[in-house]
Structures are given as structure tokens and as C-alpha cells.
Amino acid sequence: MWKLTRHQWRQVIGTLILAIAVLAFFFMPLPKYIEGPGEANDLKTFVKMPGHSDTDKGKYMITSVALAQARPATYLYAKMNAIYSIESVDAVTGGQSNATYDKVQDFYMQSAINESIYTAYKAAKKPVTRNYLGIYVLSVDQKSPFAKQLQVGDTVTKVNGHHFNSMIGYQQYIQRQKVGAKATITYRHDGKTRSVTKKLMRLPTKKAGIGITLTDNVKVTAKPKVTVDAGNIGGPSGGLMFSLQIYTQVTGQNLRHGKKIAGTGTIDANGDVGEIGGIDKKIVAAKRAGATVFFAPYVKPSKLLLKYEEHHMTNYQLAKATAKKYAPNMKVVPVKSFNDAVHYLQTH
Known about the structure:
Blueprint: H1 6-27, E1 32-42, E2 47-48, E3 59-69, H2 72-80, E4 85-88, H3 89-93, H4 98-123, E5 128-140, E6 155-159, H5 167-175, E7 182-189, E8 192-199, E9 201-202, E10 208-209, E11 212-222, E12 227-228, H6 239-251, E13 260-263, E14 266-267, E15 273-274, H7 279-288, E16 293-297, H8 303-308, H9 315-326, E17 331-335, H10 338-347
Parallel strand pairs: 3-13, 13-16, 16-17
Antiparallel strand pairs: 1-3, 1-4, 2-12, 5-6, 5-11, 6-7, 7-8, 9-10, 14-15
Helix pairs in contact: 4-6, 7-9
């Protein structure tokens, strides 16, 4: 019977340990996330408008940030590459479960699409309506009296029988009530209308509240009909670029003139562009995809604002600095609104 010598056993064990170490280096999950440049996708493939296809050369591109759970190998790579960042789980998910986080990101994307359609059709003077459904529940405080009923993804439609046409309307009405006063919340959950009556809690502001983080939930209807499928991209940052793609198709205008144009920024019902996260990584993604123009949200910098900004720079400042290093031939264009972006395209 063949037997291994002590030396051979050591070699086998050493090889196994080395194999396990290599596997762990590349595949063992760490309690961190790695953020880096994602993709820059052609919006022609996202927006469908029968009878109004986009056949002009060039493209509008929606840029994204790649997010993945860290492994020792990717953690080390991120440490050695400035364009990548290492984030805590809570910083990425806000302490929510993966399923809840995905639900919120999907809502943000659908909301961005709705506001993009409204902005583009309004600018094109095409029939469009914006119906305010209520306040979308983004998170629920564990101490909230409504915590066992309200869930992330629900939409509050009435408070004490009152429906308002803005998030501010709901907030102001609730804050006028007394802490501890009973309030009946009517809400939609999985397509069904429900109601619950509980006492209002005291918020950190010392005013009465439900104990939820919220945002607006709207439904937009437009003619001609348009559908937008963002696939697995989530979040609100594609609003501006969706608006430009939809506007181009509904008007038939050729604003790109063959250029590859990328960008980022939220959009609201007034067409105002808002700041987002990870713009440095989106600049690199756009460069890799061949973009020569990049629209970046612009806000006037101040000491207080810069204190809380990513890398202590506004979106536009960070985009400019990143382009100078990684994409020196890319034109970074500051925009405050959808109209700013259209005006730039019309005049350049």
C-alpha cells in the first residue's frame, strides 16, 4: 500500500492552504463595497416612441457607477487606484436590506423617468399630464407607531381624509397637529388601499410626524405614447439625459450633430437639474465610451456647501478636475436646467 512521507504530506497541505488563500483573495466577500466607473449606455435602446424613432448619428448616453461587494483582490486594487472608492455597507444601503435598497433604487429610477417625460413633453409643447399620487415611503423609523403597517414602497394617499398635491402639503398638515394626536393614514400597499390609525410621534424637530422618510410619487401620461426601460440601472441620476433623448424623439430635432454626448443629473417637474453622487467615476465611464461632451449639474459653491460635498467639490468642480486628469479632450458643460442643456446643443 502506497503511503505519503511526512515531507509529501507537508507539500499536499501546503498546496491546499495556498489554493484556499488564493480563492479567498479573489472570492471571499468583505463587509465593504467598491465603487468605480460603470457604463455609458446609448439611450436610443432605452426609449421607445412608435413613429418617432431616433435615427440620427451620435448618441446620448446615461452614465452609471459600478457597485460591487469587495473582495480582498478588488479592495487592494481600489486602494491603488484613485478613481475607485471603498464604501461601508451602511453608506451604500443606508442600513436597509438588499431587497429594500433595490426597491428604493427602482422607485428613484421610475420617478426620474416620469419627470423626464414631463419635462421633455412640456418643453416640446406636447400633451402631457402629471398626476400626483401621494408620498412614497422610502424608510420607516423603527420607533414609529406606524412601523408595523407602513412599509418601504407604500404610497400614502391621505392623512385624516385629506389628499394633497405635494409632499410639502402633507408635511405642513401633519406638523400642524399635536404630538400624540391620533391620525388616520390611508395608503396603497401592493396595489390595495389600506388605512391605519395611530398616534403621531415627536420628531427630532419636536414637531409631530409619522416617522417616515418620503418623496413624491407621480404618474405621467403623454401623447404620443413613450415607454422607457432602464433595465437594471437604478437611482435618480439619469433624469437629465432621459429628458434630452425623449425631447429629441418627440420633436424630431437633431441636436447631437453626430456627437456622443454623456451626462448626469436629476430632473424635477420644473426642469431643474440636481446634483448626484459618483460624477468622477461617470466621467471615466463616458471617456471609455467615446463621449466628447459631458453635462454636469451646476450649483454655486459656498463654504458650507463644499463642507458636505463629495471630495469637498461641487459636481461640476469634481467633473472638471476628473476630466482634466482622465479625459482632457472632453468638454464638461455646466447646466442648471434642462433648458441650459438644450440651449448648449442648439448653439454648439
